[in-house]
Amino acid sequence: MIKGSRMWGAAVVLLLLGSLLSACGAAPLAQNWPGLTVADGIVYAISGTPQKVYMLDAETGVQKATFVPTGTLRGQTYYWSPVTVGGEAAFVGFASQQDKLFGLFAFDPATGQELWRVPADNLILAAPAYDDGVVYFGTSSGHVYAVDTATHTFKPGWSFQAKEAIWGSPLVIGGKVYVPAMDHHLYCLDAQTGQVVWDYEAGGSLAAQPSSNDGTLYQGAFDGRVYAVEAGSGQQASGFDFKAQNWIWSEVLVADGRLYVSSLDGKLYALDAATGQVLAGYPYSTEATDYVRAAPAQSGESVVIATGNGRVTAVNSASGQVLWQWPSGGSIPTSGILTTPVVSDGRVYVLLTNGQVYALDGVTGVQLPGWPAPPTTTQQ
Amino acid sequence: MGIGEIFTMFILRPMLNALLWLYSALGNQFWLAIIVFTILIRVVMTPLMLPQQRQAKKMQDLQPQLKELQKKYAKDREKLAQEQMKLYRENGASPLGGCLPTLVQFPIWIGLWQSINQALGHQPLQLLGLSQNMYGPLRQMISADVPLNRFFLGMDLSVEPSVLGGLTYLLPILVAFTMWLQSKMMATPAGVGADPQSASMNQSMTVMMPLMFGFFSLNFSTGLSLYFVVSNIIGIITQGFISGWKGLLFWKNMSLGSLGGLLGGPRPAKPSEGDSRSRAGRGETSSTSATTEVAEGKVGGTESGVQRKKKRRRKR
Question: What is the mean predicted confidence (pLDDT) over A254-274?
Fold first, then answer.
């Protein structure tokens, strides 16, 4: 009997070890961060378990509608891009690997009703870009697609593929589509045909949308540098040089002729747009163990950053002095923040990695009533 | 500091950075980095692994004496157990001597799996982890190379065989086979000396562990399978130097009966049935009895195949 139980013991140990390894191998959460968009008085937040798009009243935080693709989904782990609003629809990339469902979905912002969908060959992790009736989006296999929103079909003859994944949103300006890619290249495509006009090779992977200012594109890279590239020619702008101590994974904020750059080294830099020189009063440093994935956002006279540890800080854009912090009074943040804060109507919206959206007063940093939203899973 | 932070600081980060350094030093080939890293891990683990392998050899060497004890105390199992323990004690052998190294390897496997996932990350959170876990000077070297070259013979080392499909299914099979071969070379012959339940357990473990690891390998990145295969091959070679190479000739003594043994197998003969009726004696070979023969052939002073043939001739 004892020996029999020894055998059972061994079997149990094996099962436990197996469970341990399997648990490590399971991927209960999508391996990206949720998106946050504010447009026309609606906050679009990816939240919940399993995740869906929540549409919240931007003033009160009251839930107006939700969106998930129609049909039965067996998977529990979904990949969403941030929502983009254009025309009269909202667009979002969605993937459920278990359901083998990858695509771009258009839905009604008022009701959450699915309008149409087009398939994709892989995950869409970056927000789609909308311009003049066309939605452009890239996938993790490196493809970039253009979809005509009137016919809900891919633009004929339009095709482009990078050598690595597309994790940054395309930027559409003046008939050109600028696409950052993980293969270190910034591509300039003709918006009509998808043909490459030029491509610029940076020293690291590009995972954020480029920013434009006076005919120059500013692009952060994983080698810690910000690259200034002439939008017309694809040539590097002369005299510009900047390097942070860790990767730059966020969009460069252009405001009042200055560049604001956040880095995974935990610092916020203000740069001269022409030279890349760090301006006086900067960099602003977060706690030693903290980092900043999210891009900075402008709120009046201040620049707001949100850190990986979950702290939101507003600094005076000119001096770099701290104006307010949230949570205030030395409180410990409940969750990290990887998503770029959105400023709208004097409010700063932040989405925590736990899926909760908070609205803060843009001047004081005080949490506004009615938030956080949506309700947590346990409250529902 | 929580257990997660301790794990990250003392296991994940050193392993990840070692892999990244090797990647950089070996011409940006991650598969090569994994192989060299595996060899280094085995070297570091030698003080733990060698006693395990020597224990296996000792246990094999003790089989004739254990056999004798079984004959002698066939009807008194309590006394048999006492005498067995005494024999183990006198010879410095421990039937459980192999457990510790296996347990020690678990954090290494998990650390390596996480290192591979981060280093070869193809989703944002994985790469974010990489950026936070690289040591400063290495970050300067590696950042410009991200995403790292993750392909080996056209196979993505960061993706599971169950996702990749095709020929990558061979990898879990190779993991299971090399692990089985290694445990066959190390195994104490079942059915001899040990009590039947332990023998049966030994036999099951020899089969179950490789099957289980083969199954895990299906659902883990192929890079981890590469580690398992290389590690097992090193284990086989080391064991070969300690207790001989005959264990590699597993097919020589295999039969349909032994295949049955592979899949759970017949229960070993009870001591009361007499060891003279053991499978080897009856001419029934099983995978484990095959190992017994190999081991006995190697151990000085025990019955070799030639000696048994002579005995049979004399009987006739």
Answer: 97
User: Which of A14, A182, A205 has its CB closest to that of B208?
Assistant: A14
Lowest mean pLDDT among A260-264, B166-170, B178-182, B202-206: B202-206
In SS3 terms, B206-258 reads as HHHHHHHHHHHHHHCCHHHHHHHHHHHHHHHHHHHHHHCCHHHCHHHHCCHHH
- Encoded amino acid at B238, one letter: T
Alpha-carbon distances, residue A296 vs A249, A261, A307 (angstroms): 11, 7, 10
Residue B260 CB: number of other CB atoms within 10 A?
A: 13
Q: Tokens for A95, please give them.
A: 């993937």
Burial letters for A315-344: b for 16+ Cβ neighbours within 10 Å, e otherwise? bebeebeebbebeeeeeebeebbbbbbbbb
Diameter of chain B measured on Cα atoms:
78
Residue to substitute from A79, A247, A290, interface B, most B β-carbons within 10 A: A247
Sheet with A302-306: strands ordered across:
A297-299, A302-306, A312-316, A322-326
More confident position, B315 or B294: B315
* Contact between B215 and B160 (Cβ < 8 Å): no
Out of A24, A32, A182, name the one closest to residue B125 (CB). A32
> φ, ψ for residue A219 (rounded to 5)?
-135, 120
How large is the ipTM?
A: 0.89
Residue bearing tokens 């891990």: B41
Q: What is the dihedral of CA B299, B305, B306, B312, to 10 degrees?
A: 130
Q: Is A23 exposed, middle or buried (0-12, 13-18, 19+ CB in 10 A)?
A: exposed
Q: Answer yes or no: do A31 and B123 touch at CB < 8 A.
A: yes
Tokens 């935990």, residue located: A266
Predicted pLDDT of residue B288? 32
Report H helices in chain B.
3-7, 13-25, 30-61, 63-72, 77-91, 99-119, 124-133, 136-142, 161-164, 170-186, 196-219, 222-243, 256-262, 279-282, 287-298, 305-315
List, for residues B76-110, the tens digit of each pLDDT value. 888 888 888 888 888 777 666 556 666 777 788 78
User: How many other CB atoms sit within 10 Å of the CB of residue A13?
Assistant: 12
Residue of B146, B148, B209, B267 to mutate, testing the A interface (most A Cβ within 10 Å of its Cβ): B146
Query: From residue A345, how far is each of A59, A62, A327 by CA, in Å?
Result: 9, 17, 21
Query: Which DSSP category does A364 fall into?
Result: T
Q: How many residues does chain A have?
A: 380
